[in-house]
Fold these 2 entries.
Entry 1:
Amino acid sequence: MDFRLSEQEEAFRKEVDDFIQKELPAGWTEESLYWPGGYGAIPDFEEINPAADRFRKRLAEKGWLAIAWPEEYGGGGRSHIEQAIFYERLSYYRAPGPDVGTLIAGPTILRFGSDETKREWLPRIAKAEIRFWLAYSEPNSGSDLASIRSTAIEDGDDLIINGQKTWSSGAHVSDYAWMVVRTDPAVAPHKGISLVIVDNKSEGITIKPLINILGFHSFNEVFFDDVRVPKSNIVGEMNQGWYYLMAALDYERLVVSIGGLRRTLEELLEYVRGTDGNGQPLSGDPMVRDRLAELAVEIEVADVFFWQTAWMLDRGLIPNIEASVLKLVTTELSRKLANTAMDVMGPYAQLERDSKLAPITGRVCTGYLDCISALVGAGTSEIQRNIIAMRGLGLPWS
């Protein structure tokens, strides 16, 4: 595998970079509290940011929101390597961009949806006309998603949904739920699940806020009481949702902030070069140098995993195990980066953004709290290790 970019790909990288620097609101990258991999400080989860919305619409106009989709569905028709270039540059600038619709729902519909489903949903997702949230987790169903209890009972041409979802990121600022429900309770748990799209405006839906550890309203608990949904909103075949969900989770695990990790390390390097500790620059402290060098090496390793998955997708290969490897490595790096920054900066790292003494805009303080969410979303680190052990190494279930 040779991951060096071609001349055409290098030109596209420059085009994306120039576009972001021109279109992204001034000061966005520096002021953003987003920590690579975290779920708690994404600006659009707190409220719909008009500047972010405008930027996303500009991406949609260029066909970049759904950059590797076929052009007939509003996509850019580009390769997965070019898609990876685009994602890497966006994350480097902490720029708003692809969301649940373009990153998870859309690719799953492309792979499993009927022609009618594709025509109905994909163009609107690609044009940034609609937003999705993930309706997976329930109060007693997190890592064990096969144990979900939310039900959908057939009633003529409709499904009647009852149940509850929790940790629902961005549900309050979205249009549709990308939801898994139990449609056949009489069979084995994973064989009776369906994947369905539910309109947030449907009667019987109640959304209640959950304030996260950062003090932001990113999460929600959502209740469904006799919510009527047309059967035409089922993705693929009824009772096959578990298999679609596994593919959707793989797509989610490919969404990593490799550029964001690199950018944050650069900011930390700049900090130690310009800050004294015990009468000498922190950059001269052997322990600090060792910690940062270790991070730099691990980010380079993660970078190779990142490009490997894009290379595989362009060759029609499914990066199932590789998606778990990438997710595990990058999210553990997110925590390690936050811990290192906290140790290097000492008490200053605890200062929030409203303090003039807070290093790098107070991002370390929120990042230290938020990085834990990176280890949970899209499957915990323990789940990723189990997948790697069983599917990659052929080891038995422990």
Entry 2:
Amino acid sequence: MRIGASAGVFALFLGAAALSAEEMLQAAGEAPLQVAAPVASTEADLPSSSTSRKTECKPGRGCVTGQPLPRFVSLKGEEGNARRGPGLTHRIDWVFTRPGMPLKITAEYENWRRVEDQEGAGGWVHYVLLSPTRTVLITLDMAEMHANPDGASQVVAQAELGVVAKILECGGDWCRLSAGGEKGWVEKAAIWGVLPDEIIE
């Protein structure tokens, strides 16, 4: 069986306009939406309160959640705005438009997470737009899904480049994925969204 990727762009580059995906944040009491001058998105350029909190952080762990950094999550809804800084006053640079697409968290600040996609594009996203459900992006065209974590085992399906698949488990050099109604083992070298040595049960 051949599993095809959905048509459409995964992320759109934007100027300063806000989209409806963040209206729920405003309704929840966030600051009113404004456009601010561009700011750098490195941790060194965050507000001083963040700098003081970093001294309490453990190496390789998020200052807010204590979870490992980097780590992978997925986009929860239809779209997610990625901003230049951790707040609604910062300009939107990207809008992720693929539900379930994997994203890598590289930093935390209060209710915001700095994320990037497979190409390294991204910014700061409010945590409510992210899901802990683990997915991967197929990075090899016609990637083979095997019956077992062994290249010599039966090929049960093939996945096109750009397919988003749900992770069922990972071990060693292989991950068992679910996509298009099919389940099978795919080599980690053919996917993005999992660390090389990561084990998922």
